[in-house]
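Lecture notes, part 5. Sequence design as translation. It can be helpful to think of inverse folding as translation between two languages: the language of shapes and the language of residues. The source text, in structure tokens, appears below.
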């Protein structure tokens, strides 16, 4: 045939791509950095849940304590109050 050139093409053009993909998948399965990141994320989530649970259970007690301290400090402003009588020390 005149004007037509024939090329010696390999029968399977995608062999190189397939081998690269296999190597990529093998490397991905061997790597553990993603697994470590997920583990740290789960640990951080558990710590956050524990903090939220602790704060919510202590929230009422802290509110009561700060209200008591606030009333003690405000009653100390009057000249006739003493620390022991205003703040109910010892109880």
């Amino acid at each position: 045939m005149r004007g037509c050139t024939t090329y010696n093409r390999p029968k399977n053009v995608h062999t190189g791509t397939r081998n690269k993909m296999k190597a990529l998948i093998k490397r991905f399965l061997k790597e553990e950095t993603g697994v470590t990141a997920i583990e740290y994320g789960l640990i951080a989530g558990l710590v956050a849940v524990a903090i939220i649970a602790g704060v919510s259970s202590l929230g009422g007690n802290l509110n009561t304590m700060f209200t008591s301290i606030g009333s003690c400090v405000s009653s100390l402003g009057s000249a006739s109050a003493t620390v022991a009588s205003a703040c109910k020390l010892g109880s």
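The translated text above is only one of many valid answers, since several sequences can fold into similar shapes. The chain is about 70% helix and 0% strand.
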